[in-house]
Write a structure and sequence with these properties.
By secondary structure, the protein is mainly α. It has helices at about 1-30, 35-50, 60-75, 85-105. It folds into two domains: about 1-30; about 35-105.
């Protein structure tokens, strides 16, 4: 009886361990994606600039809104729905540079 209980306990632990490893792999793949990571960094930069802007600053332009939407799709969306990442990051750099220039004026 003790051997049966020990075997059942061991089997339960191994199945739980296998499930945990599979779950960690599935989530780790998404977390380690360099495109998602860079898009997240750009979203943080936009949030800092938008949050630090004075009330009298010009409103967000349509270009900035579309860049943020594309960055959010890269960060949170499924890979088949992604736009091409390179041009999106270039547009983000330009939009952020333009926003900083406007803030200086």
């Amino acid at each position: 009886m003790v051997a049966l209980l020990a075997g059942a306990w061991w089997l339960w632990r191994m199945l739980g361990l296998i499930r945990w490893i599979r779950l960690a792999r599935r989530h780790g793949r998404r977390r380690n994606d360099p495109v998602r990571r860079e898009a997240g960094q750009w979203l943080v930069r936009f949030a800092r600039v938008e949050g630090a802007a004075p009330v009298s600053s010009p409103p967000r332009t349509a270009a900035r809104v579309s860049v943020v939407a594309d960055l959010q799709r890269l960060r949170y969306g499924a890979p088949p729905t992604w736009p091409e990442p390179g041009p999106v990051f270039r547009q983000a750099r330009r939009a952020l540079r333009e926003k900083r220039r406007q803030a200086r004026r």
